[in-house]
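Contributing new records

If you add data, match the layout below exactly. Sequence lines come first and carry their own label; structure lines follow with theirs. Keep one chain per record. Anything else will be rejected by the validation script.
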Amino acid sequence: MTRLSAYILLRSLFLLAACNCGKNEFMTPKTGEVVLDINAEEFSLNGKVLGKTATDISAGDDLLIESLNNEIKRIRDLEQEEALRNGKPADEGTAKIHLGEDISYDVFYKLIATIGFSGYVSIQFVIGSDFNEIYK
């Protein structure tokens, strides 16, 4: 191995580590929080992987994402029941979305539509890996 190739290898490893290109970072939801993570490979709700982005979202013709809609409706129904038991308004649900930088607009649109149809009126989203600062 020449000195130049060793330098290039070291520099490439440093850049790979600096941009976090080697891993998919998911958000960890707090108790009672609804967090949807999506990247080019898969999507998850509160840490539970629900499907593959390419086959379940991009390739589908429907506006609603069925696996996400079923799971998020179940969570939303529980939230509403709990709010009504505690005498709070039942229409104040908030969902958070963490999008990978490589997600297309049609995937984003289908996510927003599915979450909106599930009963969430406040949807917060962040794109990329700097979500820790925004969602503190």
